[in-house]
Structure of Replication restart protein PriA:
Amino acid sequence: MAAHYIDVILPIPLQKTFTYKVNESEAEFLQKGMRVAVEFGKSKVYTALVVNIHTQAPQLYEAKDIHQILDEKPIVSPQQLKHWQWIASYYLCSLGDVYKAALPSAFLLESETILYKNEGFGDESILTDEEFLIFEALQHQPQLSVHQVVDILGKKKVLPIINQLIQKLVIEVREEIYETYKPKMVKYVRLHVNYENESSLQVLLEELSRAKKQRDAVLTYFQLKSTKKPIKAKDLEKKSNVSSSILKALVDKGVFEFYHLQTDRVAFKSNTNGLKQLNEYQQTALKEIKESFNSNDITLLHGVTSSGKTEVYTQLIQDTLTTGKQVLFLLPEIALTTQIITRLENYFGNNIAVFHSKYSVNERVEVWNNVLQQKSKAQIVLGARSSVFLPFSNLGLIVVDEEHEASYKQYEPSPRYNARDAAVVLAKLHGAKILLGSATPSLESKFNAVNNKYGLVSLTRRHGNIQMPSIELIDIKEKHRKKEMKGHFSDRLISLIKDALEEKEQVILFQNRRGFSPIVECTTCGTSPQCPNCDVSLTYHKYRGELKCHYCHYQRAMPTSCGACGNATLDTKGFGTEQIELELKELFPKHNIGRMDSDTTRGKFGYQKIIEAFEAQEIDVLVGTQMLSKGLDFNNVSLVGILNADAMLNFPDFRAHERAYQLMTQVSGRAGRSKKQGKVAIQTYNPYHQILQQVSTNSYEEMYKEQLQDRWQYHYPPYYRLIKITLKHRDYTKVDSGINWLAKALQNVFHDNVLGPSAPAVSRIRNQYIKNLIIKIPPKQSLVKTKEQLQKVKNTFEAIKDFRPIRFIIDVDAY
Ligand code: ADP
Ligand code: ZN
């Protein structure tokens, strides 16, 4: 009788699958994509995934028995396994890394997992005796380890029981608590019932004849009322040009009443009549996309900001829904894109599942299961990059919104994949169509489109035929010379802000650096406080009176005197969002200034709160970092200011110019989206810089051509591919000798196509010294072969005892 074996993936960075023994009935029952509990290493138990079932004993080791089978049916689809294999081989990482990244952690129980009770659980009657013992234990102690469960039950094989407890919602494996979000309430006004008939109204208006402002408010109320929509208190104040105290007085008199509605409710009501009617340009684009899909599964939609790309996507989604196939809609960052989520939920509410790494484990498990079972409520999945790992089996369409976004690339930990590129492969595996959308496509995607690898469709008009914002460059060198600067604001920018605020319009100001200032320096001895763990100076956060490291989160109180010479002559250099916010408060004391950066958006819903406050026009001027460039859609913003364009342009990276173009164009795109042409003011020391010229004339094509020439000349993507290798260790000499050895070894194979070694701008982070090498792969050189050669060199490197403790990181298509 033949023995039976299974090959499994373990959730650890092993290069290979591992083989275990199973009995005949287990072999018959098991299918690829099911989980089994197995022991690996020194009595550690892991959840492994079956990828093969066979009768071939392993040659090099004795196969152990499995502990237990954990699933009745596969939880991973065959397409998924193929996709994972592609990721592992393309990004040079282990299948175990991909497996671990792909599955919600509740699916990956291991002996180190910690269990908590689910406070919401009440019905003990559904528990088996063993399950009840665990439930009971959790009434007496806040958490249990898997080892403790083993002790309580007096047996080793406990993962199936724990699995059951998770399924029955008795316990949680918790990393983060998910707070339920309370939508924001918006204040509305209505007339008190006493005044609803004509005659009492006449009386009222006469009564108010001497209170002119109050009378204006009431008259304007009737104008607004003719639109038959609820009237926001803010709108009424604005339209009738009265302050909130006037409305309050009218409420006190019993003329008006305030009431509150949830913002999302209101949106929902106005939107029950299905998808929006596409404008003529959108219709043409939709038609072209469909034609393109006939001959090319991958198509790039290059549509200027506010051209209504989302509306075009929704039509394609609608079409796919009717075929019964699944849709994946990828967004760069879920937290920042609540507006798009709300829009899509309004259209497709019952068919949408949002997959969010911030959701509780149970919710993620639920989405996973719904996708796996092809439930209609998860027919459309909205998610950030990790949603490419969901168990789709019937994908018809993938949309990658803002495809140029760097946040599609994962840096840490492995797998270091680009979700856009992984999505292209995923679509291919399913025979699905994929649409990449952007107002500022990555050079790579545009290049592929221009060279007919992808289809290309353009949308060049804003919805409503509103003109693209007019962009003005302000030479601050000149302004400084003429003493026309107040702090970091030119007189021109100040007057533009004034104009906008007078019109009751809103303003967005962009400064891509948080804190008050990035450098504190003693004017006596020149010393500036550094992070003890990283090679970087500490950023001053005035609001909290602290110095902080933006790399390792080290912080300490801002000293009153210099640590080196003792003089009280500390000064700041450079500026961040905090400083801009403070300057604004002095320049415009009567207006509300808001700030959006990672300091103000800490809590789970930090983003939504600020976005909603801005939407509700409770904030007049919003200062922020690159967060402001992510597809936000505000209808009352007429001015966008960029305080300092130069830092972006001078960044030492071959993508810096492309990025600066994208960032400035995207931020500019927030202006003038719904009523009239917006204005953009960019402050710079270099108004003749070609990128600024291109941004100000909206010349993407020119930027594209120029950047491509540079990329060709200096051997960068999209012509050459890059693999970045990073070594890290606490001991500088170790990293240094490691990288020098590696450079030589790689030069022997790849010759001139090895760049470096070099130290990054911040060459020590969290006490780890860092050195980089880059391998450039010419257009005709085999990718597979290159990677094999690299893997060989890596193996040799790791065989050298001295080098073994060094962290070796490979980043394919590094960003
Ligand atoms: P993009 O993603 O291209 O920047 P959006 O899809 O956000 O643009 O559209 C910009 C704004 O114009 C949104 O507020 C959207 O609701 C509105 N809009 C776009 N197309 C239409 C349409 N066909 N009918 C009504 N409103 C539209
Ligand atoms: Zn630090």
The longest strand covers residues 44-54. The chain has 27 helices and 37 strands.
